[in-house]
């Protein structure tokens, strides 16, 4: 099970940290990722971290976000800085067993319910 937390409203230019709690599985066996979906837009990959701590980011991130995992705490974190209204979306935590961590949403088969992030001006 994946449970996201930390979403909410935030001022443009501000920061927000999302967390994803992983339960019911050995997190060390999984690649983990954040995806997001805005209204009337396709779901897109935000950032992922492999079992070996390799990270991948969507092109739009441009150094603003950092994804990290803590296998002992069984959590995935997304630190977001310099947020803009274009970052407004539902953010989803996802997992896939194995070594691959590229941001292809069809590769990930375990999903959380999502947490809303709204960036206001």
User: Structural class, from helix and strand content?
Assistant: mainly beta
Distance between the termini: 34 Å
Helix content: under 10%
**Number of DSSP strands?**
11
Rg (CA only): 13 Å
Main sheet properties: 7 strands, mixed
Along the chain, the helix and strand elements come as EEEEEEEEEEE
The chain-level mean pLDDT equals 96
Low-confidence runs of at least 5 consecutive residues: none
Strand content: over 45%
Q: Please state the overall shape, judged from the principal axes of the Cα atoms.
A: globular
Number of helices: 0
Structure description:
- The protein is mainly β.
- Helices cover 0% and strands 50% of the residues.
- Strands 2, 4, 5, 6, 9, 10 and 11 form a 7-stranded mixed β-sheet that branches. A 4-stranded antiparallel β-sheet has the order 1-3-8-7, with no helix packed on it.
- A hairpin with a 4-residue loop joins strand 7 and strand 8.
- The protein is globular and about 40 Å long.
